[in-house]
Amino acid sequence: MTEQKFGLSNGKPAQSAPPLILHAHVVSVSGYMNQRQVFVLDNMQTWQQIELDLDFSVRNGQEVTISNGALGSFWLSIDSHRSTRVKRIQ
User: Fold this and answer.
1) Domains: count for the chain
2) Residue 72: domain span
3) For 64-87, b where at least 16 C-beta lie within 10 A, e where not — what string?
């Protein structure tokens, strides 16, 4: 159950500590040139880029890792060298 709450903010303190890292596969990626991408994962979570990064490219079926960052931020990584800051929207 904590995986489904990972990245959501409801203003209440968490009952138990959420995972620090989440692994999933991309089901779909939307967004067009000069727009932030939206990533739908196989665990039914939806995440959106916070900052525009035209060089960050993810394909359907690719494994991604989402991890906690500083000050409540989250990072979506496709390998150890490429990541983008994201927020959970669903």
Assistant:
1) 1
2) 2-6+25-88
3) bebebeeeeebebbbeeeebbebe
Q: Report yes or no on 50 lying in a domain.
A: yes
Please name every residue paired with 83 in a beta bridge, in sequence order, or none if there are none. 77
Tokens of 39: 């990533």
Residue 13 lies in a domain: no
Q: Are strands 83-88 and 63-68 parallel, antiparallel or unpaired?
A: unpaired
Q: Is 19 a domain residue?
A: no
DSSP notation for the chain: -HHHHTT---SS--SSPPPSEEEEEEEEEE--TTS--EEEETTS-EEEESS--TT----TT-EEEEEE-GGG-EEEESSSS-EEEEEE--
pLDDT of residue 70: 87
* pLDDT tens per residue, range 31-41: 866 789 999 99
